[in-house]
Amino acid sequence: MANVPMIKLNNGVEIPAVGFGVFQIENGGTKQAVLDAIDAGYRLIDTAQMYGNEAEVGEAIKASAVAREELFVTTKVWISSTGYDATMKAFDASLAKLQLDYLDMYLIHQPYGDVYGSWRAMEDLKKAGKVRAIGISNFKADRFVDLDIHNEVTPQLNQIEINPWNQQKDEMDWLNKEGIQPEAWAPFAEGKHHLFTNETLVTIAQTHNKGVGQVVLRWLYQRGVVSLAKSVHKSRMVENINIFDFKLSDAEMVQIANLDMKESAFFDHRDPKMVASLGGRQN
Ligand code: NAP
Fold this sequence. Notes:
The protein is of the alpha/beta class. It has helices at 30-40, 54-63, 84-98, 115-127, 141-149, 169-178, 199-208, 212-222, 234-241, 250-257, 272-278; strands at 6-8, 14-16, 18-21, 44-46, 72-77, 103-108, 131-137, 157-161, 181-185, 226-229. Helix 1 links the parallel strand 3 (18-21) and strand 4.
């Protein structure tokens, strides 16, 4: 089983360098997927209020033989629950569904709504010992610098889309400057732009006798990024966590850097139509 290195966050808490995400797993499939992931060696499990599968994640954690303190469980507060009181309520509901008495990481899922109220609730949850680390997701540099300078606690982590098509170099520079850990969602861009058959990635993979997924996750690791890959196939879970027995050369890192399209493979978080749609407005 892969020995996953730990990365130290700005408050001293350590997070596994590679984790498992449960977004878009078919209804009823999350419990088995999480059990398989834990068996494959994953200790970081990433869910969200919005994914609707926290209860299944909780069932898997309960059924697993791995001790609670060995796991690193992340969930996120959705836009509809932003604000101080609503976040406190959402946190309790998430914790109950997960059948846990503390969380390892709690994130603001999107940079919309009353994120200041949410952040202050999260600072209080941290002080109360109910969560070990707090962070944000999908915040661009202007938003997280603003949040940081007007509040007590600097976010420990920002979970953003990072993959070979959207490498987020400028955002990473700001995150590193602020001491906020970058974490990659959709590290494979969900396979968009034919990621798994890309010639550059396939050639590098063949050089190391590895798969394309392993090359992408290794590239993220060498950039200091925590990655969250999702798969419902145990063989792929095992493959995706086994990235610590090879190293990409500087030249290979440059070849991958050259694949950057500098735009999201999904959507722009600054597109007003998306802000309205994610915020629940119908038109
Ligand atoms: P992803 O991990 O980039 O891609 C998942 C897709 O890749 C699935 O279709 C999976 O198929 C396939 N796959 C996985 N490993 C593979 C391999 N070795 N070879 C070939 N195909 C492989 O995308 P994601 O699920 O969107 O993102 C990962 C996690 O990030 C999520 O689960 C979630 O926890 C988090 N996330 C967060 C946000 C946010 O706004 N904060 C947004 C999106 C995602 P199978 O399942 O069929 O194997």
